[in-house]
Prior knowledge:
It is a single chain. By secondary structure, the protein is an alpha+beta fold. The protein contains nine helices and ten strands. The chain is globular and about 55 Å long. The two termini are 14 Å apart.
Amino acid sequence: MTEISQPLQAALVQACSALGANPSDAVVLRVAENAHWRLPGGVIVRISRPGQWTAATREVHVARWLAASAVRAVEPLAIEQPVEANGRPATFWAEIPEHEHGTIADVAEVLRTLHALPEPDFGLGGLDPFVRIAERLQAATSLPAGDRQWLLSLHRDLAEAWPASLAASTAITPVHGDAWPGNIVRTPAGPLLMDLERFSIGPREWDLTSTAVRARTTGAVTASEYAEFCELYGYDVTTWNGFDILAGARELRMVSYAAQHAVHHPEWAREAQHRVDCLRGRHGDRPWKWTGIV
């Protein structure tokens, strides 16, 4: 059973009040960096971390911009939002229809469409591939101190190299920020974009690196699937001279996410340590087998 902290429970009550809903009818779906509940009538309430008002507002703007651009994505309710909920921003969304993870082809085709869109007239903000990594690593107390210091040093090295990769990009476009089949899902009506939190303006290579890392690093994408991805999108990001920096940043994000949450989920500690060991050269060459963290 998912444990809901008292402050988060109070946030749910306040969010439901703004919508005229009964919090006792809310069904918890997921509690991680953000918390999601299902309300009667096919409404999803998403409660973000404190201090994320700007990001939550941007997500709503992004969803409405995508709809106007004929790109299928999660739909915010037609109300003024976000709303304040016990110091946290809360947003309300239409529950998406029955769906499953998208295919590699879905990801390629959606990204090709997205990256061709002009920048919207509201501020998307610039991409930061290292957002929250340092905080995650500082919180990752389940890792040995030596590993944490090594990861923090890697973080500094990659962050210093990032501006050169940004300057070398072949296209600066709107980017999803976390483009993988769990966020580009397949519905009966076709692919649909989810999780708009990291939308920004940045090098298209960042979105493409996600699939390349799943092929090169984790082994979740086969060689033939990756070849299909490149053919459909029309570009192989691994041939770009800035790829290693973005791949390193993506790998570090995956490691820091697992390590941070392993503190409160001991069942994830082994996977978190495995990922660190891989980066530190203790498990041979890529691709490594990394198990997903839910």
